[in-house]
Structures are given as structure tokens and as C-alpha cells.
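Researcher: Next entry in the queue.
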Amino acid sequence: MKPEVRSLAKTRLEFELVADSLGERADGLSEIQAKLEAALLSHQETEQRIQERNSQVERLKRVVERHEAACIAYLTVIDHTLQLTDLSHAERAAAERELKSFARTLEPLGIQVLRPNPGDAFLAEFYQATGYEPSEAPSGTVARCISIGAKAGDRLLKRASVTLSGLDTRGGGTS
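Model: Structure for this entry, 175 residues:
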């Protein structure tokens, strides 16, 4: 065999080895590409499920907000009933029982009725002070609850309106 033929055969063999190696690499790249495409599809499906879950969460938040608003409306009706001056003792007692019963119903839902008693500490994050009045309660504490409020966990739904015990130092007298 002539040296040119031998060199050509050797070059052809090297070429075939390189071609085989490139073919294997191409097959490997095809596998990687298929895996990447599958991962991308999986990611897109996961992203879509997350968006659907977020939409569900937003819908549920709106439902909870509507239920909370309905609870506040009902508490306001009971509160206004208790503020009526012409209620008989039996009617006032019935309204008090209804308020306590409704408050117990709300507790498992995470809603707490805010109805501070005279002498309770003034909690600015949950109560709104409308003024001062003379009271046997210590100065600066709740003298009287004017209207009830509510909270869900640490989130305020409605502030309780109160008067504080003591003299109004801003105006120099009682309010």
C-alpha cells in the first residue's frame, strides 16, 4: 500500500472517529435539549398553577372581606340597638345576649369583638377616643364604650369608639 493511500485511509479513519464523536455529542445535545424543553414545559405548567392559586386566593380574600363587612354591619345594628334609650330591661338584656352569642360565633372565625369596659387600658391601635368624661375609672383609661369595634387577628376591622376617664387637658374642662 502506497503512503498516500495509507495517509488517506488514516485521515478517513480519523474523520470517521471525529464524525462519530460529533454524532454522539449531537445525540447528547438532543437529549439535553429534550430535557430542557420538558423542564421549561413543567415550569410553565407550575407557573400557570401558581397564577390560578393566586387568583383563588384573591377570590377567597374578597369573600372573607364581604363576610367581615356583613359581620360588622350586624354588630353595628346590635350596637345601635343597645344605644336606644327607650329599651325595656328585657329588650336590653335580649340585645346583650344576642351580642354575646354573636361574639362567641365569631371567635372560631378569628374575629374578636372590641367592647372595652370602664377602667380598661386605652389601646390606640384598636380604639378611637372621642373625648374625656368624669369617671371612677383611673384617669386615661376607658370611661365608656360608645360603639363596639372588631378585629380579625391583628387586623382592625372597625375601631371601638370610647371616652376616656379624666379631664380634657387640651380644652381645660370635661367633654
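Model: The first strand starts at residue 111 and ends at 114.
Researcher: Noted, moving on.
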